[in-house]
Amino acid sequence: MARIAIVIGVNKPKKLTPLQGAVTDALAFGVWIAKQGFDEVKTFTDDKNAVAYQDIFAEVDRVVKAATYSQLVIYFAGHGFQNGGSEVWLLSGAPNNPGEAISVEASVMASRESGLTSVVFISDACRSIPSGMPDSNVFGISIFPNEALNRQTRPEVDRLFATLPSLVAVEAAKADDKARRGGIFTREFMQSYHNPPHDLIERVPENGELVEVVTNRKLKDLVREMVEDAAFGEMPKAGQLPEFILESVQAYVGRVDRASLESFARPDRRPDLEAELGPEIRPEVGPDIRPEMRPDTEVSRGRPQRAPAVAALAREAIDTAARGQGADAAAAVLRGSALGNKISEAILGFLRVAPVDHFETKTGFAVTGARVVSANSPRFSAEVLGTEFVRLQPEEEGAPSASVLIQFEGGNGTVLPGLRGYIGHIFVDDGAVTNVNYVPSTNSVDRWREYHYVQADVEALRATVAAAAGLGVFRVEPREARPFADKMRQFKVLDPTLGLYAAYAYASAGLDQEVSSVLQYMRTDLNAELFDVAMLARRAVRPHEVGPNDPDPLAILPFCPMLRQGWSLLEVREAQLPDAVRQAQNWLLPALWSTFAPEGVELLRQAMLRGDFR
After folding, report:
1. Which CB contacts under 8 angstroms, 24+ apart, belong to 475-478?
2. Structure confidence by residue, pLDDT tens digits, 543-593
3. Would you list the DSSP string of 244-267?
4. Mean per-residue pLDDT for 260-286?
5. HSE of 351 in the Cβ direction (CA atoms, 13 Å)?
6. Angle formed by the axes of helices 455-470 and 496-508, to 10°?
7. What separation, in Å, do the N-terminal and C-terminal C-alpha atoms of the chain show?
């Protein structure tokens, strides 16, 4: 079957500083990948016309419906950021038009139904966090058709990012004007196939002949080393490290290039690309890798020793906590790099003990980092005690759990499920919710007794997973899914937020059965479903509060996604939210957990008073 690449380069999105080299990168990549055995290469750049979402969607839709392609590679160079745990690529009309942006995570999820064998996303874009609400409201859209095609083949999806979550991608600069010449990642990615180490090369059949390739999995460490070396030469303090999120074992993009180093006419230019790109573009093409920067040679020049990838360290830290070695040991695993230190500090910060361990009603919230000014619920009487606590009083004994809207001093607020028998601990930093956990109320006797025996282990694991998720490096690879699930299930009473994080990680990796398993476990334990997990497990989910005479006894809570990243998946999962919630979406703030600006809080409060959620 055929292979196709869709190549996107955007220099000039609306109201953002224009880039000088994203189009150059895309054109160079397009020329390069056309030589890698691909049957088609479709290029979209804004050097002449705007790059529009609809054009890209139409091409992907064509590929899916044709059912004649085995692999689709989607490359992007341009402005990007990470919004609520999902990468967003800005097209020409963004961010003014939030519909002119691509959500990588939503596209990954929708691609599972494409019937392709391999889908590869390659991103040479920043993954920084939006600094204000206008950018944070750009969620992006899936570029795959939103259809359950029920095809037998489900693709392995690989994601190749130029840098780690929350960080920028370094741009190589021309010596004369310091303008962007091109992304270092794109340049080094293409060069990584040039005379790679022999142990990375595999021979695979392609169109009736054997060709030499480097699989994405074997390419991972090589590209990481090359980009780190090259970025250090451009901007020593940047510390750029690519992140490869891989599901495939044998999928590949490029063929091995055995041309000798001496074949290049100039050290800063590749003649094959130079000849094909034309005089107006070719001066921008990046240099070939220098011998002294090759990963199999010693590089000194004051460069720090290479450390393991942060995502790998995060997995090790989670394993450490799951083995019962405690939060301190888990935090120690991550120390040594800027991002690792942030996660380490977050682990210890999230261990702070909630200022209350029970209410006589057995249900409520304690808030750290902000003063509470109001609380509302469609089913509970919500009472603010002092400035730290919300005590929830069910309408009747044995009433099910319900959604709760909590507003902090300054006007921001959040929506969470008030879970019967649990005290929810909300961590707030500068008006944004950074973490939430649920601990059985000490007077919820059976639940607390069971939890108490494993409390230290659960709290260490919970803090480690939450800290990794907060900086976007909590991943579960397919081959790790079962061991990870077993580690969590060894604790009979799970904090529901652990299951929430796990469900997102499983869904991102395409592990649908594990998502369903988390949902079933929660349904049994909580007598309710968390909206996010239900949305990830099945299509067309609608939040549902339960009243005394409701014929459907199962609540789906709360009435909106708990994690910010869930909002970018609403369309691809066909989730159905009340109109007021859709309006409040425009007032979401940059945060891991859904946090609304005052205007959004007021919209939700008025809807609650009208009875919209009952």
Report:
1. 475/245, 475/311, 475/314, 475/315, 475/505, 475/508, 475/509, 476/502, 476/505, 476/506, 476/508, 476/509, 476/511, 477/246, 477/247, 477/509, 478/247, 478/509, 478/510, 478/511
2. 999 876 777 778 999 999 999 999 999 999 999 999 999 999 999 998 889
3. EE---SS-EEEE-B---GGG-SBT
4. 38
5. 20
6. 40
7. 52
Return the axis-axis angle of helices 338-349 and 327-334, rounded to nearest 10°: 160
Q: What are phi and psi of 604, to 5 degrees?
A: -70, -35
Cα 88 to chain centroid, rounded? 10
- Residue 392's pLDDT band (cuts 50, 70, 90): very high
d(CA 137, CA 1): 39
Tokens at 442, concatenated: 């000490």
> Is the distance from CB of 504 to CB of 85 less than 8 angstroms?
yes
Angle at 473 (CA atoms; ends 470, 474), nearest 5 degrees: 85
Q: Contact, 7 vs 75, CB < 8 A?
A: yes
- Hey, how many other C-beta atoms are within 10 angstroms of the C-beta on 582? 13
Sign of CA dihedral 100, 501, 469, 226: negative
Pairing outcome for strands 40-45 and 2-9: parallel
Q: What angle do CA 564, 566, 570 make, to 5 degrees?
A: 135
Q: Binning pLDDT at 50, 70 and 90, where does residue 323 land?
A: confident
Q: What six digits make up the tokens of 356? A: 């209350």
| Tens-place pLDDT, residues 72-106 | 999 999 999 888 778 999 999 998 898 999 999 99
CA 497 centroid distance within chain: 17
Radius of gyration of the chain (CA): 25
Which helix or strand (DSSP H or E) is residue 527 part of? none
Per the CB < 8 A criterion, the answer to whether 95 and 15 are in contact is yes
> Does residue 595 contact residue 587 with C-beta atoms inside 8 Å?
no
Give dist(CA 139, CA 6) in Å, integer: 21
Strands 180-183 and 171-173: antiparallel
Residue 398, classed as helix, strand or coil, is coil
**Average pLDDT for the chain:** 84
pTM, two decimals, is: 0.84
